[in-house]
Amino acid sequence: MTRLHPFTLLAIAAALPALAWILPAPAGGLAMAVVALALALTTGVFRTAVFTAAPFWLFLLLLHDIPTTVAIGLRITTMVSSFVWVVAALPPPRLVEAMVAAGWSASAAYVFAATLSAVPVLRARAGRIADAQRCRGLSPRGGPVQRLRALRALAMPLILSALHEVDERGLALETRRLVPGARRTPLAPPSDHAVERVTRWALAAACAAALAWRLR
Amino acid sequence: MTPTLRFDRVSFSYGAVQALSDVSFALDSGERVALLGRNGAGKSTLLRLVTGLARPRVGTVWVGDWDTRDATPDRLARRVGSVFQHADQQLFARTLEDDVAFGPRAIGLAPAEVASRVARALAALELGEHVREHPYDLPPALRKLAALAGALALEPALLVLDEPTAGLDRALRARVTRALLERSAAGAAVLVITHDLTFAAESLDRALVLDRGRLARDSSLPGLLGEGAGGGGALEALGLLPPPVASLSAALALPGRPIRAADAARALARVAGGESRHLD
Amino acid sequence: MTRLALERVTFRYPATEAPALLDVSLEVPGGEVVALVGSIGAGASTLLLVAADLAPRVVGGRLEGRVAFDGEGVRGIVLPTPWTQLSGMAFTVWDEVAFGPANLGLARDEITRRVDRAIARLGIEGLVSREPTTLSGGELQRVIIAGILAMQPGLLLLDEPTAELDPIGARSLWELVRALAREGTAILVATSDLDALPAVADRVAWLDRGRLQAIGSADLLGSEALVAASLGPTVANVWHGARLPSPYPVSVAQALQRWEQR
Question: What is the interface pTM, i.e. ipTM, of the complex?
């Protein structure tokens, strides 16, 4: 499954929620939620999907009656599961390679990849900063005022140091020729089969057909 | 007397990876110790154990009479001042002065005491002219000193530093040396991870060497460097090279084999029949 | 013929009046290593940015004078902090090193050849499948340098390239710098590793508050003026401290020679 072409993975992740919303509730939502949760199961993120979707059910139940809760809940479950699945199934570098191979400019692909790769970098840095501030005596306990102060001592360095690096990062990218209009060589373009291309078109067609049927 | 820091048969692992095995040593008040070893030898892990960011699986880490298992890092900050690598990333206050005051305030000192400790720390590193500047307006090397000032301002019984001189030029390294000598004269114990053996020779006098998580050596620093300069290969096996002063002393057979520039200059002057001058 | 030439270069950063470089003229021919020494703020980093065509083009600011680079290959600069130089687009070390060559649009087998060679020259074969963000400072510094070498620069600009390396690692890097010069690369390096320079630098340029104060062979490091400015190698410093006559020896080997001829 994860060896599919990145665009196919994205198409599936987009088509499932689309169909869940378009097809009549609750059957449509149920079918798509089952598929999405099954996909999540195959990549080992079933629990994440369920735990992320659960709070939505709680809120819906507080606001609506049972049928509405089930109808919307299944659709949201489909969205959440599809998203969680595609994040787990699609490593960013493969997506970037696919984008470059499909003719996107290197800079556009970069913005996309950098956004994804920034998360672990920032998380690691936040951990280092938290460690450093605790060793400077910052206590994670106390009342709301103390906690707010503590948050400031963690958030400000994270933002400042990241902003400060932007200039140097720009210079580094420039010297390595990430410049507008550069024709980047894709290093390992993911293989794309005719079957997959057909599948993608079929998914788009299915969504369009479902929409036409519902609007008729 | 209770040692400032004592490792008692400490082992630590990250999952299945054994980072430290059965490490024991003690640091007394005023001692200045280099923590040496290759990448991955366990130096940073040892520092995390001292600051309470990690707790030993086996054995005990004592900071004075506190078992680090019973103390959080913020409580240990009353006794341990630390500077990690990339310490410049921790700065955030509007002025250098304010940032250096963060630690003393966080451990609950009175404003007057905070002010005098901050002033002393900034003076020790000769940062007086920058007190009102934003930390991020300073060049990276001075930001590094700013982080060190933050640790000095805690006036802790124990200072632990990870590569404090990386990216500093000689003049700034000399400032760090002077500050450490001053703190140790006032009774603080100092533990420094460094691969800058010239700095280590000028600032420190004892060496702990870690090798794959084990304490391979605990000896005097001049002894270790002298051996290395004699061509023993003991240093090279650790990824280290004898610093130039040690090599010079060995090459010219200077009496006492000095490892500090000022001592070597004195020895050289004596052999040459003259008088040395003061060196920074 | 590869050659970097700066003619009477004055440079001011945006929104500043005081020049960061003042009337600097300097030439670096292919095959030569020129070292920039100076205290913090002397202008060495700025000079490298100007030579790399990043200042004022990307940085902004105003430039007077002329900067010219003739020769084959790109201009590559290695900046001082390795972690800000990661591409953010590579999820293995191999891809990180390949980032520049791929952006040059080279053929894939040419990229592979260059990347493998750069990786071998930096001795980081063991890291190729690691994720760059998990590397230590020293490992990262080597990866970044490999990434620039894989672009095959005709002019290589290095800003404190050994700051994160241990002494053995630093020694290997300086040997690599010499090897690159032998192959015809023009190299300009700013470093505070003064003890390494006698074996590395063909010429030493002393910058002070944006001005080029002196330029000469590595023996310049043993002059009274540089030692007084805290820019002499350790051996020269000891010689100075012992009140032995200047110019001072700059390396242990030179010191031994002087001592025996005394």
Answer: 0.90
